Amino acid sequence: MRKVISTGSPLEKAAGYSRAVVQDNWCFVAGTTGYDYDTMVMPSTVEEQTRNALATIEKTLAEAGFDLASVVRAQYIITDAADAGRVFPILGEFFGDIRPAATMLVAGLVRPEMRVEIQVTAYRGEGKTNALL
């Protein structure tokens, strides 16, 4: 079973991608930046952008029948290494008890106002646990 999820952003069709793809017990959420999709405004701070990106991801996962606790892999991209200390506490709020396998990279993003992009993979199925070691 394959299902695509869209935020309705015209960029998704123009660039040929989906906000998320559900395949069987997996949900692959595309890199998500900090836009507020209701207003299509990008906040100026990395903290606000991080919260917006995570809210979009959480909404996308819910639409796909998943939740944040289903996230098993995360990739974080920031444009300035100095922002890591600002982003880490917010990631901890959302993922502190879930603790997905994660990678953070420092790289340029498509538009200069973008300061963070987050991509996640979620899984639901038999044998899923949330035990902390």
Automatic annotation (TrEMBL):
InterPro entries: RutC-like_sf, YjgF/YER057c/UK114. Gene3D superfamilies: RutC-like. CDD domains: YjgF_YER057c_UK114_like_6. Pfam families: Ribonuc_L-PSP. Signal peptide: none annotated. PANTHER family: BLR7761 PROTEIN, YJGH FAMILY PROTEIN. This is RidA family protein.
